Amino acid sequence: MPQADVDSFRPVFPAPFEVSMKSITRLLGCSLVALGLLGQTAVAVEKNTPIQFGALTWESGSLITEVLRTLVEKGYGYPTDTLPGSTVSLETALAKNDIQVIAEEWTGRSPVWVKAEADGKVLGLGDIVKGATEGWWVPEYVIKGDAAKGIKPAAPDLKSVADLARYKDVFKDPEAPGKGRFLNSPSGWTSEIVNTQKLKAYGLADSFVNFRTGSGAALDAEVASSIRRGKPVLFYYWSPTPLLGKYKLIKLDEPAFDAEAWKTLTDPGNPDPRGTSSLAATLSIGVSAEFSKQYPELVSVFEQVDFPIDLLNRTLGEMSEKHEDASVAAARFLKQHPEVWKAWLPADVAAKVSSSL
């Protein structure tokens, strides 16, 4: 077709159409900007939603929780809150991102944690308290006596859990004549399941009452009361805690750690548990996978957290003696020991925390 004919067929749009095209272009541009702003707003809303910490009921767990909450709130400006629950229920909630942080997670112990970690739903960050331990303990005077207090050895040959059956009368249960009493963890703790299975594995289930205290504080009170009165007491305990630093205690020997036997102890339904020392303790900060994606800056901080165990035990001891709330003890720790926690944070964030104390 000749050029003239082509030109004659070229459509000529009226001015209103040109205006409409420009309007559409502007509208699309505005829409894209609006969507971008909406996305930013959604992120902002998410970051303004409180980060949920598990409300841990033992002293070290509650103290570490409050220290971390302060760093997150004052250093980064993120709101936080706590949600109560047993160890197992909190681990389940963490896997679902119903909570985002468990400040003191004894990693690798609970089947709930092991599965959630294998499925990529939770992560254990750092090694926050080196030298932590757990086991079955008795006061030193039970084995060695205490001449200053007029206490004679009640179980001089007691060295291991294998010796307990013949000393059940030493640890007699006031409510169950003919049986000893073993002070277990509160129900709902992973260690309570392990200890219950250990009683079976060591052949002690029929000779000792498996006494479960209502809380970590109740366990402390029961043990401390017995020690103050110079009475024999057999109990499960762990560190970091003020109790192990306050009293002279002896940890009973158990069989060397066996990974396969350990599996039978963490499974409450296993009918034939086998005895073994507990899994070597690794204390980490448990976080949900979603949290790790949303707060990479906090993940970096949590990976650096390291509480010197002797200092932590002293802090817990003071907290216990003063009957302080964990938030009060945490504030004092942060004020008195900046050389510890400032090493975990970028300098500008540490400065914000310092100015808030």
From TrEMBL:
Residue intervals of the ABC-type glycine betaine transport system substrate-binding domain: 50-336
Molecular functions (GO terms): transmembrane transporter activity
Any Gene Ontology CC annotation: ATP-binding cassette (ABC) transporter complex
Xref: InterPro entries: ABC_Gly_betaine_transp_sub-bd
Gene3D superfamilies: Dipeptide-binding Protein, Domain 3, Glycine betaine-binding periplasmic protein, domain 2
Alphabetical list of Pfam families matching this protein: OpuAC
Protein name, entry field: Histidine transporter, periplasmic histidine-binding protein
